[in-house]
Every structure is written in structure tokens, then in C-alpha cells.
Amino acid sequence: MSLTSPDTAPDAARALADGLRRQSPARKLAMVGQLHRTARLLAESGLRRRHPEWSPEQLRRGLARKMLGPETFRVYAAAVGWEEP
What is the block-wise mean pLDDT of the chain (85 residues), using blocks of 10 residues? Predict the structure, then answer.
């Protein structure tokens, strides 16, 4: 699995990989957490733009469906007592 796009110079790709290897486990975990928060905010922004009429509850469910996928969402929705729309 590559960390870079195909147009990244090999030296730059090696420098990135070396830099990531030098990070502590705590720093790597913090980076993953920030990436997750960013992805969640982008997904939420997209839902808000496409569905400005949605209530906060509808937005929460829509985000859960988007992030979990339809099958896992159905299991999660049943577990927390959400009814399917």
C-alpha cells in the first residue's frame, strides 16, 4: 500500500515514510484521530449541503448511515432503537 500518489517523487515518498516511522505511537494515534474527525466533518458538511431541511437528529442518522454503510447501520440502528425512515 502506497502512502503517496503516483506522481510523487520516490525521494519524497521515502522521506514521508521515514518521517511517519519516527513518530511515536501516541503521535500516530493522534494523527489518525484527527483524520477521522476531518473525514466526519467533511461528510457532515456534505449532508448539510445536500439536505438543508434535515433536523439535527436526521443529520446524526444520515452521518451514521454514511460512515457505517447500510448493513452495519441497520444493525446499529436496531441496537440503539432507531426506526428505519
Answer: 80 92 96 96 96 94 94 94 74
∠ CA 47-64-82 to the nearest 5 degrees? 115
pTM score > 0.85 for this model?
Answer: no
Structural contact between residues 27 and 35, judged by C-beta atoms closer than 8 angstroms: no
Domain residue ranges in the chain: 10-80
Question: How long a stretch of residues is the chain?
Answer: 85
Q: How far apart are CA 80 and CA 72, in angstroms?
A: 12
Q: Nine-digit cell at 53?
A: 431541511
Residue holding cell 500516530? 28
12 CB-near residues (< 8 Å, 6+ apart): 4
